[in-house]
Amino acid sequence: MGILPDAVEEATRIIGEAGRQGMTMRLLGGLAIRLHSPSAGHRALVRTYPDLDFALGEKRGDRAESLLARLGYAAHKAFNLLNGDRRLLFFDEEHQRQVDMFVGSFHMCHTIPILERLPLEPVTLPLAELLLTKLQIVQMNEKDVRDIAALLLDHPLGEIDLETVNRRRIAELCADDWGLWKTVSLSLERVEQYGAGFGLEPEPWSIIQDRLAGLRQALHEAPKSMRWKLRARVGERLPWYDLPEEVQRT
């Protein structure tokens, strides 16, 4: 079977094949949020999903690289050689689709631990991690705000997983990492600022605002670690985030 044109079907195929090879792989990014959030199809939040993003539950990417090659993908050899212990890139030439795979943990502007959380969902990361991988973006764009708004509109905050945003998980990670806390706090403000212009009806926008406020409260109330407190003394005098390399096929 060749690469499937439908992104959801193709993502499911890749995850299934990985599982048959004894690898745990889960979808993240906008398409993963779309699978959980019907509101991503709302006229005010709809967007396209040109790429596939995965998290791999292994410390090395060798087996995943071999699998993607067998499934018909072209590896970005130079990038993978330099970054393969953390991130792999592949391309679907026919459908003009890029596959981004995070190995062992998620690291872009910040690092989000994921390994122990991968088994909680059969296809995607848990909602808390899906949300965090968006909120940790320093240079957030419109599609990221739409994704966050859709996820929050369709899911309550709580202290469990499944179809609930586990605010305790988010707060605990941020309470141990001042840099992550700082970026997430700024991102929550940006979602409220820019999301107001999307043209959502008053009731759904009010739900999103309430859940943004609930996340801000959880971040504020969570007991902070000594590591957090020491880094907070430095504050913004030093950079608290990375700007990841964005690689496109040339």
Task: Walk me through the structure.
The structure is a single chain. The protein is an alpha/beta fold. The chain has one domain (7-237). The protein contains ten helices and nine strands. The strands form three sheets. A five-stranded mixed beta sheet has the order 1-2-5-4-3. It has a two-stranded antiparallel ribbon with strand order 6-7. The protein is globular, with a radius of gyration of 18 Å.
Q: What keyword list fits this structure?
A:
250 residues, alpha/beta, two-stranded antiparallel ribbon
Can you describe this structure in just a few lines?
The protein is an alpha/beta fold. Helices cover 46% and strands 13% of the residues. The strands form three sheets. The chain has a five-stranded mixed beta sheet. It has a two-stranded antiparallel ribbon with strand order 6-7.
